[in-house]
Design brief:
Elements: H1 5-22, H2 33-55, H3 61-90, H4 93-107, H5 111-118, H6 134-156, H7 160-180, H8 186-190, H9 197-213, H10 222-225, H11 227-241, H12 254-266, H13 272-277, H14 280-287, H15 289-307, H16 313-339, H17 346-367, H18 379-386, H19 395-398, E1 399-400, E2 411-413, E3 422-426, H20 428-442, E4 448-453, E5 463-464, H21 471-483, E6 490-494, H22 497-500, E7 506-507, H23 516-532, E8 536-540, H24 550-561, E9 569-571, H25 572-586, E10 596-598, E11 605-606, E12 609-611, H26 628-664
Parallel strand pairs: 1-4, 3-4, 3-6, 6-8, 8-10
Antiparallel strand pairs: 2-4, 5-7, 9-12, 11-12
Helix pairs in contact: 1-2, 1-14, 1-15, 2-6, 2-9, 2-12, 3-4, 3-15, 3-16, 3-17, 4-5, 4-17, 5-6, 7-9, 9-12, 11-12, 15-16, 18-24, 20-26
Length: about 675
């Protein structure tokens, strides 16, 4: 079959879709479908290539595998070497071990298997995995290896109708399996070779139909003319309208896949959509699409890793331009030269690539089984990283995670012979400061008890999306226990308020999302219940959420650039923006409840910025939790003094009130 320029244009659309998706452009929420487009194209082109060589009696399995090898492996291995070099420079031991594991699975053509076991393609972690996109390459290679063995005899002896029947059966069975299988997780389905077979089959079916009817299709017919437009419409609307909630791959994916099929069947290079797709810039992107696909994810990921955050819009534009430049260079100096099977010393070059691949397999297999402790890190890097684990020493005992709390068994701090009078109620944010705060409170002879439930706000009658947390049940149990125990005179509330006040974070017991207005009502109800029982209420307002993960960021800067005195900070303007809804929630409580407001952010403030570290200590465990010995110790003395003063003032006020009442009597 003569090369069709518009096919390169389709490739260009597919690779742009994937790049824009990984750049987090909302306009292309369905950009992940670019991979599905590639699979359909592969099914079409492989059977077309094999069929044309068989028709000319020039097909050779050796030549076929040699050509596939030179087309795919050199650029893939070159990218692995680049990623490994950067990885050695910027990654920490745990990340390096994971990188070696990915390289091993890639080179043994099982990357999709590893992906199904260890990642969520639509999760946050994927944005920090430089080789996650190789999963599709593994499926492609599995197809390229076994598909020729399947179709050769049918094409050789002209049993194309039987082949067509088998391919249609494969399409039906694979799509049915992908659509209705409920024994596998969505992640396992997404990376499954079996559930992707129908896309390759559709491409192959499209070619067989094209071959049979190409000469009798009247592409000047007004009906035929508009079929490619329908195809591009199906693809375009899918790229825009589909998102992470769609079941992929399944029958829903058939819509864009069928769009590709229509374009392959009815387009040509000289009219309509075909002419548009053959437009040189788009076609050129298609020509270098493989190199672009290989290099874009490492560029995006390493930038995120170094900056320890996602990129801003203007940065994404610069990174995409860099992707085009480096993708072109990879194509020009690696992919393209190796594709010439007639070049001099080609067999030696193949041997060279194989040796590199084998070396990488042995190296990656050895190092993927190492322990982080096997790697040597500078002491100050270790110190920075240690703050990631700076948690409450009694975390396992004190923090409730995915189970029902037993209040009588809650953690108690201070003199064990005394009854606890102060309740520390919250989520993991409270647990991070519970130990140092209780230590400070003990200095004033206060004993405290901790009710911390991971992921759950100290608000009753609400839940979160993850029902395993049992927020609804635990909040009710805790509130009932507090109000029914007169020994508890004070309740301190602290949680990840900034997160809970966001849209689609809090739900009803039945899973319906709760508006901020409704959440305010439930929060007010919780405070009312405490106030009616005479409890003094102390609310610790939101902790500033940093743009980066401070322990990682400081350690990363140290690893890459050496000694650094960088202070990680957040501007007041940014804090006001991120905490606006949360503060609106907390400020709904009427003044008559006499709630004590504690602004923890002010305890981290220096020169109109909220800081995450000083030269030696990091105050955060991650971007939003304070580290227990770092940040917790820094703020606890002031919080304790503030609580003590509020209690003293309240007691004095009550005594003065009683005195005045007696005097009036």
């Amino acid at each position: 079959m003569q090369h069709k320029l518009y096919i390169d244009g389709i490739r260009g659309i597919a690779v742009l879709a994937v790049i824009f998706f990984h750049a987090n452009y909302n306009l292309f929420k369905g950009g992940f479908l670019g991979v599905d487009i590639f699979f359909v194209l592969s099914g079409f082109l492989i059977i077309a290539s094999i069929g044309s060589h068989i028709d000319r009696e020039k097909f050779s399995f050796l030549k076929y595998y040699k050509k596939r090898f030179l087309r795919i492996v050199p650029a893939a291995v070159a990218t692995l070497l680049i990623v490994l070099a950067f990885g050695l420079l910027v990654l920490f031991p745990e990340e390096l071990i994971n990188l070696y594991k990915n390289i091993y699975y890639i080179l043994t053509i099982k990357s999709n298997v590893l992906a199904a076991e260890s990642i969520d393609y639509f999760g946050i972690g994927v944005e920090f995995k430089p080789l996650v996109h190789y999963w599709s390459l593994s499926i492609e290679l599995q197809f390229y290896i076994f598909f020729p063995l399947f179709i050769y005899l049918f094409l050789k002896y002209k049993y194309e109708k039987i082949l067509l029947f088998l391919l249609i059966s494969t399409l039906f069975l694979s799509m049915t399996y992908a659509t209705f299988n409920d024994t596998l997780s969505s992640n396992e389905k997404y990376f499954s070779t079996y559930m992707r077979l129908w896309e390759f089959a559709l491409g192959s079916i499209t070619f067989l139909v094209w071959k049979q009817y190409n000469n009798i299709i009247n592409r000047d017919s007004i009906y035929i003319k508009y079929l490619p437009f329908i195809g591009i419409f199906l693809i375009g609307t899918s790229l825009i309208l589909y998102d992470k909630t769609f079941d992929v791959p399944s029958i829903t994916t058939f819509i864009p896949a069928f769009g590709v099929s229509l374009m392959l069947l009815f387009s040509n290079d000289h009219t309509g959509i075909g002419k548009l797709l053959a437009f040189y810039p788009l076609r050129k992107l298609g020509v270098i699409s493989y190199s672009l696909y290989l290099i874009h994810q490492p560029i995006f990921v390493f930038y995120r890793i170094i900056r320890d955050r996602d990129f801003y819009f203007y940065e994404s534009i610069l990174l995409i331009i860099l992707t085009f430049v480096l993708g072109y260079l990879l194509w020009r100096f690696v992919e393209k030269p190796f594709q010439d099977t007639k070049q001099k010393y080609v067999n030696y070059k193949i041997l060279f690539i194989i040796l590199i691949g084998i070396s990488l397999i042995f190296l990656s297999h050895r190092d993927m089984n190492k322990k982080p402790s096997d790697y040597i890190l500078k002491d100050n890097i270790k110190q920075y990283l240690s703050f990631r684990y700076d948690n409450n020493p009694r975390l396992k005992e004190c923090r409730i995670d995915n189970k029902i709390i037993i209040p009588e068994n809650a953690c108690k701090y201070g003199d064990p012979s005394q009854f606890a009078t102060i309740v520390l109620w919250g989520d993991s944010h409270m647990d991070q400061i519970a130990m140092p705060l209780s230590k400070e409170l003990t200095k004033w002879n206060y004993t405290s008890v901790e009710f911390s439930v991971s992921g759950c706000p100290p608000i009753t009658n609400v839940d979160i999306v993850d029902k395993n947390r049992m927020c609804y049940q635990n909040s009710k149990i805790i509130l009932d226990y507090i109000v029914n125990n007169d020994i508890y005179t004070d309740v301190v509330l602290f949680a990840y308020w900034t997160n809970y006040a966001l849209k689609n974070r809090i739900t009803t017991k039945d899973g319906q999302f709760v508006s901020l207005k409704t959440l305010k009502k439930h929060f007010k109800h919780t405070i009312e219940a405490l106030h009616k029982k005479g409890k003094r209420i102390h609310i610790i307002y939101p902790v500033p959420q940093m743009d980066v993960n401070p322990p990682f960021h400081k350690a990363r800067l140290e690893k890459i650039f050496g000694n650094n005195n960088a202070i990680i900070k957040l501007s007041k303007e940014d804090y006001d923006k991120q905490s606006y809804k949360a503060i609106t929630l907390l400020d709904t409580i009427p003044k008559e409840y006499n709630v004590h407001k504690i602004y923890i952010s002010e305890l981290l403030k220096e020169d109109d910025f909220y800081i995450a570290n000083n030269k030696q200590t990091i105050f955060y465990r991650d971007d939003n939790h304070l580290s227990t010995q770092g940040g917790g110790s820094k703020v606890s003395e002031d919080i304790s003094n503030s609580i003590r003063k509020f209690i003293a003032d309240s007691v004095k006020g009550e005594n003065d009130k009683i005195t005045n009442q007696n005097g009036d009597y």
